[in-house]
Backbone:
């Protein structure tokens, strides 16, 4: 997923190095403090695959002195670690 500071995002889903779905849209961020808040991703365009994209709401938390991002959506948490 690519996210830009101006509120746009895009993503590609690949399976066996084949493009399965491509999406793009806008997002809004609201803070609940210095290191947590909510991200709402709204798809505007979808290609490949079936159906339109759905709005996704994620809770985020920044940890480890900014070296880790935790995104929780529908009870599932993904952990992203900053690479050097």
Residues:
């Amino acid at each position: 997923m690519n996210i830009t500071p101006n509120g746009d995002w895009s993503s590609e889903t690949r399976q066996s190095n084949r493009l399965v779905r491509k999406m793009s849209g806008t997002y809004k961020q609201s803070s609940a403090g210095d290191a947590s808040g909510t991200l709402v991703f709204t798809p505007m365009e979808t290609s490949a695959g079936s159906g339109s994209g759905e709005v996704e709401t994620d809770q985020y938390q920044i940890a480890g002195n900014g070296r880790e991002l935790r995104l929780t959506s529908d009870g599932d948490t993904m952990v992203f670690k900053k690479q050097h």
The chain has a mean pLDDT of 91. The two ends are 19 Å apart (CA to CA). The chain is about 0% helix and 65% strand.
